[in-house]
Amino acid sequence: MADVRDILELERSPTPEVSKEVILGLRKDAPKRKKEKEVMRRPEGMHRELYALLYSDSNKDLPPLLPTDSAGQGYKSVKAKLGMKRVRPWKWMPFTNPARKDGAVFYHWRRTCDEGKEYPFAMFNKKVELLSYSDAEYSEHLLCEGWTRAETDILFELCHRFDLRWPVIHDRWPPHLTARSIEDLKERYYNVTNCLKKVNNLTGPEGKIVNYDGDHERRRKQQLLKLWDRTPKQIEEEQQLINELRKIEARKKEREKKTQDLQKLISADTDSRKMTKTTKKKIQQTKVAKLDTAPPSLESCTGIKFPDIKSSGVSLRSQRMKLPASVGQKKVKAIEQLLTELSLENSPMAVEEVCQLFNDLRSDLVLMYGLRTILLNYVFELQTLKHQCESVMPDKVLEIPEALTINTGEESPSRPRAISEMIDAVATPNTPNRKRKAALEQSNVLKKIKART
Amino acid sequence: MECNLFLCSYLGMAQAQIQQQQQKGNQSADFGPDSGGRIKGLTIVKPLIYGNVARYFGKKREEDGHTHEWTVYVKPYNNEDMSNYVKQIHFKLHESYADQNRMLTAPPYEVTETGWGEFEIVIKIYFHDPNERPVTIYHILKLFQSPPGTTPAAVTGDFKKPLVSEFYEELIFQDPSAMMHQLLTNTRQLTLGEYKHDTDFEEKKEKTIKNLLNAKEKISNEIADLREKIKLAKDTITKFKEEISKYQGDMSVDVSGLS
Asked: Mean pLDDT in chain B?
């Protein structure tokens, strides 16, 4: 009406009916934001269709595993396909269902052309074919502990009735008989049938022996139940443990690879005599780096190996006296200290004889340092054993041989202090060995004081 | 008469030197690019002395604050002409010196300068054989007897006497080339007169060797002693452990009888 008026240019309302406010007002109302549920954002780079296939909380429709061929079916409302032929007549006729045992007669509408045919739904009455046994067979082959003839008969009857549907059979197992689990029933049934098959020498698909392992099944179901019953915390814990295991395996592999590479390099070194100084040093460094982590053992004390390069070209004698980089900082300091004690220069005159003697001496110093450390470790071990013994057997005291006590100041003070004792001053302050040494020295000092008084 | 003789001999020497230089120029061409190939198994050792002498002025110079005059040098241990096999020696001084790189191609290989501080000088020796790499020696210039900061006036003596800091070094020529071998073996005398160094290196060598041998013996004794002790310690540990395990195995038995 309003547009007719508009066309005829009759009186118009003072304000246009469709006003700006109305439009905007509607606009204001319309986008009433529905509370948006958490929508997982499609990760960038993933195609839209691919993303739609993902199962997520907002999209609970799993895509089908098998493609359907419902080309004509589906949600589209399909029109009924009506043929244009003549109408076929229908008749109210009686029928019996062969599946029924009582032979009851029912009536239904049926096409006249289909009059004589069998009731179409009878074919769905499938039954499982069970083997049966006679008394003789039973008494001869099928006797079993825990199963009476009666029970076995009941079992078979149930199986027949319920078409080997075990949960139902288990549920219908009579309560007055001994309680049986599904596995028990199954076990018995399969044992019987297998036995019968063997006895009757059945071949082909009928004679197929079913290997049913009741124990295995019981354990499997138990395990499944356990798996199902895990709390979320347990699941998380398991996940973490698996991750840690993977990391450990990876690290182990890396270590093995490194040792293999090292072995290869070492074997390559022994094979070919032409070896550059740098790679040799690298091996020495990695080898020594590995050894450094382990405490010095008697076998690993070897002194210093000076790189002896018989290379062509000009070199300085003093280069032959340089300490290789493999000698650790601690050892370098120890060597310096000892050299000053022996009143020797750190870099003496570069003559061939001197060079040789100096290198040998330094090698010996390192060896001595190592031996000293080992000895201290042993002495400490003795101390701990002694204390352990004293605490366990209070009346028995183990004596540490005199020669092994540190800083025995009982002898005349003029006894020249062994060079090795001077190394005490050299050890870096934060090693645990040093702390123990300090404690031991303290106890020794106390003993000395006691002895003197 | 004598002057004439002297002049003649001097001229003779000069001539010989020129000749040798010409020879040197030709020699590298004679031997070819690989310098005649290396002589395997041959080792030639050329000892040399390097270092510096320093002399205190007595006062601090006004214009630049320099206090010492010093000379850094490289000279052969024996009286021979190093320039036969040494092409040039490069002294790299502190960057505050103009022309911090000083190249010397003929003896005496020394650089004299004045200054006030000690620093490291890099001495690089190049050889006539192009196939031989140059060797580098690092020398810390020594000006003060006591550590810097103390006034030199406090040190008695050694006031006007120059301070010497020199070291012995050996150049080892391993498998020298034919050309190098020639150059190394045909050296001439540097001076006709007496040739000696400020430091008695022979005596130093003897002393060092003696000290080293002493020290070596001492250390060997220590090592033997330590090894013995370690063995004793090990045995004692096993003994202790046995005792403890015995006790733990049979608690009721009185083990006081065992030592």
From this structure: 80
- pLDDT bin (cut points 50, 70, 90) of residue B124 is very high
Chain A touched by B135 (CB under 8 Å): yes
Q: pLDDT category, B61, cuts 50, 70, 90?
A: confident
- The answer to whether residues A434 and A428 touch, using CB atoms and an 8 Å cutoff, is yes
Instruction: Give residue A375's pLDDT band: very low, low, confident or very high (50, 70, 90).
Output: confident
Specify whether the backbone of B31 is left (phi greater than 0), alpha (psi in -120 to 50) or beta.
alpha
Q: Please tell me whether residue A4 adopts helix, strand or coil conformation.
A: helix
Chain A nearest-CA residue for B251: A393
- DSSP assignments along B104-131, one per residue: E-SSSEEEEEEESS--EEEEEEEESSTT
Contacts 24+ apart (CB under 8 A), B158-165: B159/B56, B159/B58, B160/B55, B160/B56, B160/B58, B162/B53, B162/B54, B162/B55, B163/B53, B163/B54, B163/B55, B163/B56, B164/B51, B164/B52, B164/B53, B164/B198, B164/B199, B165/B51, B165/B52, B165/B53, B165/B54, B165/B140, B165/B141
Q: How far does A322 lie from chain B, in Å, by closest CA?
A: 13
Residue A48 confidence (pLDDT): 77
Please report the residues numbered 358 through 417 in chain A whose beta carbons come closer than 8 angstroms to any beta carbon of chain B. 358, 360-361, 364-365, 367-368, 371-372, 374-375, 378-379, 381-382, 385-386, 388-389, 392-393, 395-396, 398-401, 403-404
Question: B171 and A314 in contact by Cβ < 8 A?
Answer: yes
Tell me if residue A277 falls in helix, strand or coil: helix
Q: Give the residue among B185, B145, B180 at the shortest CA–CA distance from B56.
A: B145
CB B116 within 8 A of CB B67: yes
Name beta bridge partners: B137.
B123
Under 8 Å between Cβ of B242 and B251? no
Terminal CA-to-CA distance of chain A, rounded, Å? 131
Closest CA to B35 of B138, B164, B130, B136: B130
Give the distance from residue A354's alpha carbon to the nearest chain B alpha carbon, in angstroms: 6
Angle between helices A277-293 and A232-271 (to 10 degrees): 140
Q: How many CB atoms lie within 10 A of CB A206?
A: 10
The token duo for B129 is: 């054989």
Residue A268, φ and ψ in degrees, nearest 5:
-65, -35
Radius of gyration of the CA atoms of chain A, in A: 48
Run of H or E residues at A126: none
pTM over 0.80: no
Name the token pair of A153. 């008969």
Please, what's the largest Cα pairwise distance for chain B?
A: 115
Q: Which residues contact A392 (CB under 8 A, 6 or more apart)?
A: B244, B247, B248
Helix/strand/coil for A111: strand
ipTM of the complex: 0.75
- CA nearest to B200 within chain A: A349
Please say whether the beta carbons of B85 and B187 come within 8 A.
yes
Share of chain A above pLDDT 70, in %: 68
Condensed to tens digits (0 to 9), the pLDDT of residues A255-314 reads 999 999 888 887 776 666 444 554 555 555 555 444 444 455 665 666 777 777 667 778
For A325-354, give one letter per residue: b (16+ CB within 10 A) or e. Answer: ebbeeebeebbebbbeebebeeebbbbeeb
For the four alpha carbons of A172, A175, A176 and A181, in that order, the dihedral sign comes to: positive
**pLDDT at A417 (0 to 100):** 46
Q: Considering only CA atoms, which of B212, B231, B220, B232 is closest in space to residue A303?
A: B220
d(CA A146, CA A157): 18
* Cβ of residue B173 closer than 8 Å to a chain A Cβ: yes
